[in-house]
Structures are given as structure tokens and as C-alpha cells.
Write a structure and sequence with these properties.
This protein has 336 residues and is an alpha+beta fold. It folds into two domains: 191 residues, Fructose-1,6-Bisphosphatase, Chain A, domain 1 (2-Layer Sandwich), CATH 3.30.540; 125 residues, D-Maltodextrin-Binding Protein, domain 2, CATH 3.40.190.80. It has eight helices and 15 strands. It has an eight-stranded mixed β-sheet, with helices on both faces. Helix 2 packs antiparallel against helix 3 and helix 5 packs across helix 8. It is globular and about 65 Å long. The structure holds 6-O-phosphono-alpha-D-fructofuranose (P6P). The site of 6-O-phosphono-alpha-D-fructofuranose has 10 residues, from helix 6.
């Protein structure tokens, strides 16, 4: 009998019993993300061929030119989630405000909300570098059957019931956790099926890759500057190497497999950092901790932060626990 790698669908069914609320809704939610990811993957893969590149001429709330694929990916994920009537609310980097969703009986009777960055790293699209989708799932906290409120979206990251990303790279992968370990699935595009390729992903014990945009060096806090110099000058053979793809999902994914730290500190242009707490930092922090890593804002655990607004930014340091610990020590020592 040929070796049969478990498909994502089979995995979800097997893990059903582990979900906090095993009503099957979370399974259906993960399945809808799986489908939307395949649709977006198809467009991303042919982006170079179809006139889908370049700014769509609109700006999103981030004040950034929207790439057509950003807009497209946002619509695909929202439509897939709405059509399957699984969630009662959605927040997206591409939407100024959260979206309230009614169920089939025109009531708000679904349990879950999704926050997402539908196409992170979109500035890399034109240069054929990997991009990704990041998603974060919570159970609503306001009464079932009522319209969601902002309070449902401003929960601390430790309340997430699931989180993950899809990386559209040399191969397309979905990596996610429902709280019990992190598992990676690789898409076989020939048949449109994801197969379990990276079971129970964990950061290696030690890491030696640091990922940061050193172009911002002069604007970094003193502790970050000291850490970068530490990486560059530690005695003995050069123990560290610098890798920065400019796509959070890709840098994080590589660091989780090879060992490393990704950081986007505060800078003069972004005094609170560039990354968004709710749909970039919290989901990646959820995965990092379940893969044995750590995620911090330089001083505090990311997942403990109580959000105050939908699109708030935070400084973000995430990866091997020993590397984040070291960076936090420098931040503490050189606190301004
Ligand atoms: P910079 C992409 O826009 C993103 O949000 C992350 O995916 C990436 O790590 C970072 O910003 C890149 O920002 O300022 O280094 O180009």
C-alpha cells in the first residue's frame, strides 16, 4: 500500500475532538480558510501573467497603496467566510472597520470571529517574493444572537482559539494551530489537496538567524542596536547570520524551521512599530508559543496585551525563546 500522507481534511476530522468547542464549527471555519487559500494561491501564482499587479488606485486605512491582489484576497476570504455562514464578524487589514455578519436565519448566531491580514508582504508581489495570509480566530464574548461589537475584536491574544498563516512561496503551505501544537500542510496544486508535511512544528533548541530591516538601524531603541551589535560581534566564529525577506510570514516560517528571531522595533517613522497587533502579531505569537518560541513587544508578552483599537501597532520580537530572552535583556538594560 503506498504511503499516504494525511490530508488537511482528514487531519481536521481526526483533531475534531481536541477543539475547545467540538461542535464542528471551527472545523468548518478552518476548511473555509483552506478553500479561500487555494483560490488566492491560484491568482498569486499567475500574478505575473495577468494584469492584476500594481496599485488598485485606492488607499487602505494604513495609508498604503492597495495592490490589486490585496483587494482580491480580502474579497475572497470575506466572501468565503460569509457564504459559509460560519462567523459572526470579520476584521481585516484592508477594512477600516469590522464587518458584522448575520447567519442564514438572519440572526447573529455563529460563535466565532476572524481577524486577518489577507495578503501580508504585498509590496513583494511585483518582485515575485513570497507573500502570505495571516488569520486569527476568537470565540465571541458578547451574547450569542446579537450583533458583534468592537469588544469581540479587542480580546488579548491569549484568548485566541486558533491562528495560522498561508505562505504562497515556492510551494503553498498552510500552517496553523488550534492550541495543541503547530502543523504544516503543503498544497499539491495538481489535485488541490493539502498534505500534512510538517507535523508538530517546533523551533530548534538554538537559533542563529536574525531578521530585521537594518535600514532603520539609526532609529532603533538603544537596546535593539546593542542586540544587533551583539549578534555581529559575539566572539568565536560568526555565530549569527542576517536574513530578511521583507515578508513576515516567510521570515517567521524560515525561523521556525531553521531557528531565529524576527523583529520589527519602533522606529521614528513607526514609533509603535509597523506590525499590527490584532491580525499580524497575535496570530504569529500564538503559533510561536505553541512551537516552543516566544513573542514580546520588547518588555511584555504579546499575547497578554489588551488591545485598545482595531489597527493598533506594536513593536514585535518573535522567535527562538533564547534569542527573544537575550533581546529583552538588552532592552531592559538600555531602557530609555
Ligand atoms: P519594511 C509587509 O508589509 C510587512 O507588514 C511584513 O510582512 C514585513 O516583515 C514588513 O512589513 C516589512 O517592512 O519596513 O522592512 O519594508
Amino acid at each position: 500500500m503506498t504511503k499516504h500522507n494525511k490530508t488537511l481534511g482528514e487531519f481536521i476530522i481526526n483533531k475534531q475532538s481536541e477543539f475547545k468547542y467540538s461542535s464542528g464549527e471551527l472545523s468548518r471555519l478552518i476548511n473555509s480558510i483552506r478553500l479561500a487559500g487555494k483560490i488566492v494561491n491560484h491568482e498569486v501564482n499567475k500574478a505575473g501573467l495577468v494584469d492584476i499587479l500594481g496599485a488598485a488606485g485606492e488607499e487602505n486605512i494604513q495609508g498604503e497603496d492597495q495592490q490589486k491582489l490585496d483587494v482580491y484576497a480580502n474579497e475572497v476570504f470575506i466572501n468565503t467566510l460569509v457564504n459559509r455562514e460560519i462567523v459572526c464578524g470579520i476584521a481585516s487589514e484592508e477594512e477600516d472597520d469590522f464587518i458584522t455578519i448575520k447567519g442564514g436565519n438572519k440572526k447573529h448566531d455563529n460563535k466565532y470571529i476572524v481577524l486577518m491580514d489577507p495578503l501580508d508582504g504585498s509590496s513583494n508581489i511585483d518582485v515575485n517574493v513570497s507573500v502570505g495570509t495571516i488569520f486569527s480566530i476568537y470565540r465571541r464574548i458578547t451574547p450569542d444572537g446579537t450583533p458583534v461589537t468592537i469588544d469581540d475584536f479587542l480580546q488579548p491574544g491569549k484568548q485566541q482559539v486558533a491562528a495560522g498563516y498561508i505562505v504562497y512561496g515556492t510551494s503553498t503551505m498552510i500552517v496553523y494551530s488550534t492550541g495543541h501544537g503547530v502543523n504544516g500542510f503543503t498544497l499539491n496544486p495538481a489535485i488541490g489537496t493539502y498534505y500534512l508535511s510538517h507535523p508538530n512544528m517546533k523551533f530548534p533548541e538554538k537559533g542563529n538567524i536574525y531578521s530585521v530591516n537594518e535600514g532603520n538601524y539609526v532609529h532603533f531603541p538603544e537596546g535593539v542596536k546593542k542586540y544587533i551589535k551583539y549578534c555581529q560581534e559575539e566572539e568565536g566564529e560568526r555565530p549569527y547570520t542576517s536574513r530578511y525577506i521583507g515578508s513576515l510570514v516567510s521570515d517567521f516560517h524560515r525561523n521556525m524551521i531553521k531557528g531565529g528571531i524576527y523583529f520589527y522595533p519602533s522606529t521614528s517613522k513607526n514609533p509603535d512599530g509597523k506590525l499590527r497587533l490584532l491580525y499580524e502579531c497575535n496570530p504569529m505569537a500564538f503559533l510561536a508559543e505553541r512551537a516552543g518560541g516566544k513573542a514580546s513587544n520588547g518588555f511584555n508578552r504579546i499575547l497578554d496585551i489588551k488591545p485598545s483599537e482595531l489597527h493598533q501597532r506594536v513593536p514585535f520580537f518573535c522567535g527562538n525563546k533564547d534569542m527573544v530572552d537575550k533581546l529583552e535583556a538588552f532592552m531592559q538594560k538600555h531602557k530609555e
